[in-house]
C-alpha cells in the first residue's frame, strides 16, 4: 500500500490536481445549470444527480489525497 501511495505522489502533481479540481467545478456548474433549466424532465434530473455524485466523489478523493501528502 505504501508503494502505491508513493507512486501516486509522483503521478499526481499539483498541476494535475488543479486540473481535476477544475473538472469537478465544471461538472458541478453544468449539473446545476442543467437542473435549473430542465427541471421537468426526469431523465435529465437523474443525469444531473449522477454528475453531482461523480463530482462529489472526485472532490473527496482529491481532498483525501491532498491531506495525506501535504
Q: What do these coordinates show?
A:
This protein is mainly α and 70 residues long. The chain has one domain (2-69). It is 89% helix and 0% strand. It is built from three helices and no strands. The chain is elongated. The mean pLDDT is 71.
- Tally of strands: 0
Radius of gyration: 15 Å
Structural class: mainly alpha
Query: Helicity level, as a percent range?
Result: over 70%
The gross shape turns out to be: elongated
- Write down the secondary-structure element order: HHH
**pLDDT averaged over residues:** 71
Distance between the termini: 18 Å
User: Beta-strand level of the residues, as a percent range?
Assistant: under 5%
**Please, how many domains?**
1
Note poorly predicted spans.
Answer: none
Biggest sheet record? none
* Separate helix tally: 3
Amino acid at each position: 500500500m505504501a508503494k502505491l501511495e508513493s507512486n501516486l505522489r509522483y503521478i499526481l502533481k499539483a498541476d494535475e490536481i488543479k486540473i481535476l479540481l477544475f473538472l469537478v467545478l465544471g461538472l458541478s456548474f453544468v449539473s446545476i445549470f442543467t437542473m435549473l433549466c430542465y427541471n421537468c424532465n426526469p431523465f435529465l434530473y437523474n443525469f444531473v444527480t449522477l454528475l453531482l455524485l461523480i463530482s462529489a466523489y472526485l472532490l473527496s478523493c482529491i481532498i483525501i489525497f491532498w491531506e495525506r501528502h501535504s
